Amino acid sequence: MLTAKNIHQYYSGSHILRDVSVSATAGRVTVLLGRNGVGKTTLLKSLMGLVPIKSGTVEFNGHAITKATPYERARAGIGYVPQGREIFGRLTVEENLLMGLASKPAGTPIPAALFELFPVLKQMLNRRGGDLSGGQQQQLAIARALAAQPKLLILDEPTEGIQPSIIKDIGRVIRQLADVGLNGQRMAVLLCEQYYDFAEELADDYLVLERGAVISQGTGAEMVSRGVRQMVSI
Ligand SMILES: Nc1ncnc2c1ncn2[C@@H]1O[C@H](COP(=O)(O)OP(=O)(O)OP(=O)(O)O)[C@@H](O)[C@H]1O
């Protein structure tokens, strides 16, 4: 579904991503791990087109999207949940969800399946985003990215600052999205995560970044034998 090859990225002269290749496949959760500041967010932003890559290629469903704008990538079927959630605090939950439909024709409804995944959002439709707890905001951010029914969901550290019970719910949702999708179509999930146990439990595939380069990758089942926990521990 998504294939990115040989990505190099720089921020004002510093080499941030070094020849990174990554792919994501329908029905599978691919986990991106690495310590603070190794370039994980930069990689996800590059895949979403939020920062232009210096060199390398990105293909989505067989089409080159290397030069596509974030809007075009959203229209092509990529959903993005940014680090820190970026909820519109003054807008209601419903309005936040409608923002997720910006790439769809006017009048496209919010998929009812979202409220089955996150029942709490249904009860809070008229509350302001800023009045929700951190965990509820994270659920809202995921639901907003799902509103346009993407084929690939990219999540940047969805467990950051979230209480354990909601982390469990989010983990269940991610598994369900990969296994059966929102409406029966299995999704590809690319998840950047610092919380190792959560990552290991969900990973069908993994890759580890260190100083902008991939130092290990394989299937989720190989994470223990390859010592991935030690690679990312501080
Ligand atoms: N806009 C920017 N301009 C210049 N340097 C940046 C910018 N954004 C990030 N960096 C630097 O690029 C490197 C990679 O940052 P990035 O946020 O991608 O790392 P990360 O692995 O996601 O870290 P974290 O886990 O802390 O979110 C860091 O050294 C960071 O300081």
Automatic annotation (TrEMBL):
Entry GO MF terms: ATP binding
Domain of life, per lineage: Bacteria
SMART domains the UniProt entry points to: AAA
PROSITE patterns with a match to the protein in the record: ABC_TRANSPORTER_2
Residue intervals of the ABC transporter domain: 2-234
Cited Gene3D superfamilies: P-loop containing nucleotide triphosphate hydrolases
Cited InterPro entries: AAA+_ATPase, ABC_transporter-like_ATP-bd, ABC_transptr_urea_ATP-bd_UrtE, BCAA_Transport_ATP-bd_LivF, P-loop_NTPase
Pfam families per record: ABC_tran
Keyword ATP-binding: yes
Keyword set, alphabetical order: Amino-acid transport, ATP-binding, Cell membrane, Membrane, Nucleotide-binding, Transport
Family the UniProt entry places it in: Belongs to the ABC transporter superfamily.
PANTHER family on file: HIGH-AFFINITY BRANCHED-CHAIN AMINO ACID TRANSPORT ATP-BINDING PROTEIN (PTHR43820:SF5), HIGH-AFFINITY BRANCHED-CHAIN AMINO ACID TRANSPORT ATP-BINDING PROTEIN LIVF (PTHR43820)
NCBIfam families the record matches: urea_trans_UrtE
Record-given protein name: Urea ABC transporter ATP-binding subunit UrtE
Source species: Roseateles koreensis
